[in-house]
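Reply to dn_fold:

You asked what the input looked like. This is it:
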Amino acid sequence: MDILTKIKNKDAVIGVLGLGYVGLPLALRYSEVGFKVLGFDVDQGKVDSLALGESYIAHIAGAAVASACANGLNATTDFSRAAEVDALIICVPTPLNTYREPDLSYVIDTIESVIPYLRQGQIISLESTTYPGTTEEEIQTRVEKAGFKVGEDVYIIYSPEREDPGNKSFSTHSIPKVCGGITPACLEVGVALYGEVIDQVVPVSSTKVAELTKLLENIHRAVNIGLVNEMKMVADRMGIDIFEVIDAAATKPFGFTPFYPGPGLGGHCIPIDPFYLTWKAREYGMHTRFIELSGEVNSAMPEYVVSKLVDGLNEAGKSLKGSKILVLGIAYKKNVGDMRESPAVQIMQMIQNKGAHVAYCDPHVPVFPKMRKYEFNLKSVRLDKESLEIYDAVVIATNHDCFDYDLIKEKSLLIVDSRGQYREFANNIIKA
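and this is what came back:
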């Protein structure tokens, strides 16, 4: 196949569609090893930033972006340029709609935008998390309708992203990459495509297997977090520190993997993926009770944190209504600026709805961004002795390393700790 030769010689042009937390690192990696890369995005702001060699994602260094741009990385909002590339790698969001059903509109819009410009010999790879059958139903069907024979004219694969923003132990190239193809020829091309930039490619027998693999990975995490969140609430009633329990259990060298509780689930994958599988399972007459139960537990955690805040204020003779509350950390995980599905934002909304005055501090999110479901006209406040003393309570929603926890403990009237940052018991600390 000519495309295999082009990949091996790094003559293939790589197109990355969607330049967010998944697409941008992948584009940088292909550029790093010597491929010409063309990025596509509907956001003109991202395209403009890349034209200047600047990063718009906090944990991705500007120097890495500038280096890639110097090596020929370009970005555009013009999807007709899909004809210029040999591989089209789709890295767009797959959220849920208001009914907690899969929203594939980004995937469908993207593939329909490039279908008119497809040509023989091109590769289409979907990386967006989705339910088993999506690649066949939404991409293969449209490609074949356009007159292409999959496995001969065009090669279609599914290779789920495994990015973990801010995790310094793993990078794009060091995380093994699962890959499934519509046909054996598609799989061969997919393994070659990713084998140039990923240390280990894991081939599987079909795109459905690859799709379900991604869901299993994240549902495994969601279910175990749901378990430990429920254990946290039981332990709290018993006056036991769940974090001490987890640390003790983790000393067992087999049969136990530590998961840690928190204020709820965040990020694009873990809060969403279980619903992709439960929705698809209904087509087969299955009710995924275990998975749905863990989702219910995790979804209830922001409300649990707010209830602990209400209890703490009541003990101090105050009501939540009219109180000044500072939320520390509004990204979904520590040390990044990623706001997707962040439980901290749900907590802020609940606090505000109950009549309190809410503010936040998060150096990784200087200005509250535009979000589909939430709107706060706020900027991150400074964190110092004077500012802490004006709030009736501080809620630790995301435990960034940059926070001065000794200062917070010393100067805060009340701390609601949803992350187990403080292991000791103190009069002004409520563990949530």
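Residues 214-280+288-294 form a domain with the N-(1-d-carboxylethyl)-l-norvaline Dehydrogenase; domain 2 fold (CATH 1.10.1040.10).
Hope that clears it up.
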